[in-house]
């Protein structure tokens, strides 16, 4: 049976009642985003033919009704963690939703096997958590000009290249724990010198020794002739 969700924040969605549990809509913290997957026939056709076939089946009215029902544009706080994006159509639908989050301020995308969201822009996002993904560079993060708190723990960021792109943002807190770049020499000094507005790194406030510029030394081989 399809019922209205009891929580006001989910008033635009429907609720599928599953027997033998007492979970209610207002208890959901990270709902999974799912479209009905392609049928066996559609999978058989595959590729462009499947896309064309699917496009003919959905009318403009249905698309508009679906857009009104989702209402992602007015979402201010959203948790889309643990989506288990195992198929291409799931990834595409997930990114389609991210493109529509024009007013989101707090967003959690933990453990989604994400590698590149550079085409996504989140103009109002102040807090972003993308822990436990597969990002390899700061360049692969979404455009987040208003970011204040960014968590990137347990990704695969090798170097600090690209971190200066956040220099002109109001970024105050950054978490890079369990990334390879954490083992770089003078790691904290390099981060704070690149981000002068930063107040906290990996849960530790800015310390006096973090304020000094990185120690740049030139080593020369000297041959002394006696």
UniProtKB/TrEMBL annotation:
Gene3D superfamilies: Ribonuclease Inhibitor. PANTHER family: GENE 29133-RELATED (PTHR18849:SF4), LEUCINE RICH REPEAT PROTEIN (PTHR18849). The keyword Ligase does not apply. This is TILB protein. Keywords: Leucine-rich repeat, Repeat. The gene is Lrcc6. The keyword Nucleotide-binding does not apply. It comes from Crotophaga sulcirostris (Groove-billed ani).
């Amino acid at each position: 049976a399809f019922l209205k969700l009891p929580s006001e924040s989910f008033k635009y969605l429907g609720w599928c009642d599953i027997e033998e549990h007492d979970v209610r809509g207002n208890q959901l913290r990270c709902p999974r985003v799912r479209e009905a997957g392609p049928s066996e026939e559609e999978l058989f056709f595959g590729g462009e033919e499947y896309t064309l076939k699917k496009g003919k089946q959905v009318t403009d009215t249905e698309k508009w009704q679906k857009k009104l029902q989702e209402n992602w544009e007015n979402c201010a706080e959203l948790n889309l963690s643990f989506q288990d994006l195992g198929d291409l159509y799931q990834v595409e639908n997930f990114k389609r939703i991210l493109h529509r989050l024009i007013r989101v301020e707090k967003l959690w995308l933990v453990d989604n096997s994400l590698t590149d969201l550079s085409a996504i822009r989140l103009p109002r996002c102040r807090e972003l958590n993308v822990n436990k993904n597969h990002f390899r560079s700061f360049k692969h993060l979404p455009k987040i000009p208003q970011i204040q708190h960014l968590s990137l723990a347990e990704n695969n960021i090798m170097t600090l290249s690209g971190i200066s792109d956040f220099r002109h943002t109001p970024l105050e807190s950054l978490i890079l724990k369990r990334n390879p770049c954490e083992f770089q020499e003078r790691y904290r000094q390099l981060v704070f010198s690149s981000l002068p507005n930063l107040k906290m790194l990996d849960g530790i406030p800015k310390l006096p020794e973090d304020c000094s510029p990185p120690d740049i030394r030139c080593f020369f081989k000297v041959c002394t002739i006696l």
